[in-house]
């Protein structure tokens, strides 16, 4: 594995993950009604850190391979939707509005998983926890939107950064 490529992919991952620091959950999220199966708060940073390391590894393994076009396209798409979801859900508080972004994230992670598996077993396997976690996140997003129908989104000028 090329460690420079790994560092580049990891840098991209933590760039996307920085939106979590820019738009923290806070008291607003704490007071929302959530399903009983919501993972504990400590699990989110642990999972995202692990996932980011794994998908950086996957990207670094697949990037130098011939025929990686679709895999790299899906890798780029998933990290873009990953970075976009947090400001919409936590920043703008658009519980329903974040669902289309979550759907695009899920599809792009599925696409990355499949295309990485086609090129390299370990790269594909590295995406499996991400696919599982984003599936949980999608159902959690949907459940929170349904359980909090009267939650008003913020206008961009009202966002606390």
The rounded Rg comes to 16 Å
Averaging pLDDT over every residue, what do you get? 94
* Helical content band: over 70%
Amino-to-carboxy terminus distance: 38 Å
Instruction: Tell me the fraction of residues in β-strands, as a range.
Output: under 5%
Q: What is the number of beta strands?
A: 0
CA-based shape: elongated
Q: What is the correct CATH architecture? A: Up-down Bundle
Question: How would you characterize the overall build of this protein?
Answer:
The chain has a single domain, classed as TspO/MBR protein (Ferritin), CATH 1.20.1260. The chain contains six helices and no strands. Helix 1 (3-22) runs antiparallel to helix 3 and helix 1 runs parallel beside helix 4 (69-91). The N and C termini lie far apart (38 Å). The model has no long low-confidence stretch (mean pLDDT 94). With 161 residues, the chain is mostly helical.
Q: What's a concise summary of this model?
A:
The protein is mainly α. It is 73% helix and 0% strand.
Name a few traits of the molecule.
mainly alpha; 161 residues; Ferritin; single chain; 6 helices
Write the SSE topology:
Blueprint: H1 3-22, H2 26-31, H3 43-62, H4 69-91, H5 99-119, H6 121-147
Helix pairs in contact: 1-3, 1-4, 3-6, 4-5, 5-6
């Amino acid at each position: 594995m090329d460690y420079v490529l790994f560092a580049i992919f990891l840098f991209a991952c933590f760039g996307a993950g920085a939106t979590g620091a820019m738009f923290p959950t806070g008291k607003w999220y704490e007071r929302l009604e959530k399903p009983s199966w919501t993972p504990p708060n400590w699990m989110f940073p642990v999972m995202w850190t692990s996932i980011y390391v794994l998908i950086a590894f996957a990207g670094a393994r697949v990037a130098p391979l011939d025929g990686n076009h679709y895999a790299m396209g899906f890798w780029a798409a998933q990290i873009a939707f990953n970075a976009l979801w947090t400001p919409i859900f936590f920043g703008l508080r658009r519980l329903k509005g974040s669902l289309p972004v979550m759907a695009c994230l899920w599809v792009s992670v599925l696409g990355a998983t499949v295309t990485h598996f086609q090129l390299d077993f370990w790269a594909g396997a590295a995406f499996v926890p991400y696919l599982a976690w984003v599936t949980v996140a999608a159902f959690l997003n949907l459940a929170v939107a349904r359980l909090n129908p009267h939650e008003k989104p913020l206008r961009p000028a009202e966002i606390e950064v």
